[in-house]
Predict the structure.
Amino acid sequence: MDFSHKPVLLDETIESLAVKPDGVYLDGTAGGGGHSAAILARLTTGRLICVDQDPDAIETLTRRFSDDKRVTIVQSNFSEIDSVVSELEIPSLDGVLMDIGVSSHQLDTAERGFSYHSDAPLDMRMSQSGTTAADLVNTLPFHRLVYILSAYGEEKFAKNIARMIERERAIEPITTTLRLAEIVKAAYPAAKRHDKHPARKTFQALRIAVNGELDRLSLGLDRAFDQLSQGGRLSVITFHSLEDRMVKQRMAKWCEGCVCPKDFPICVCGRTPDARLVYRKPVEASEQELAENPRSRSAKLRCCEKLRK
């Protein structure tokens, strides 16, 4: 199975990493290998670790890079970067890339259950193991469903949707994507059903919950930063506001220096920044990329450089 995925912000991302020919880099969401291949093109004696939790991605990466001795492929989640680096006995990394969110392959492969456009089992597991979206929809209590839809999907009509899910699952378990999409649509006010697909936020929220995405992102950011060498860079691509806000705040924390009151004549806290921002504002897709790949519309790239090990 080909893990097709058109990498977003490709040139901008590779530029942000400032790849050194002899450096050691880790692609924490390697997918189909688009970004990885671009990193490899800039390496000579360097090394690349390709990490992904999806078995389909690992299969594709193995076919694509198995003959390249500079590449090591690991099935894992980017939140376990510290363990991956330790097991490979790598002292530190010169750069880490994390491309957060669902891939084109996962969206376009109907049977994976990520999309509300095709009828398929309600799955959404990136690792293809563990709890499914159907498990959550059919077993979680009302208040928990409301929380997930509100917190992870920023869904204004979370209570309406949760009530409708409760009612419908009592009649028959909700096991397919299109049935859930129709339930969500029925729960929406009629005037709001045609703005964007009503199920968009619900599917996003369930996907985040199924895969523990925000918790893993939080862990992954800290662990990736810890593994960087002095001058190493962390580049992160996000696709919705919850992810981007977390990345922005975490990088701002690392870049924070003196916290003494402004009226102090000298610094007494002794705090110095651990990192510097490579870009003060997130990098977004160009008009050309938007025309070629509409899924890049919500992508934001942030990057910081570690100042000391």
In short: The longest strand covers residues 228-238. The beta strands are 24-27, 47-52, 71-75, 93-99, 228-238, 275-277, 300-306. Residues 121 and 176 are 4 Å apart (CA to CA).
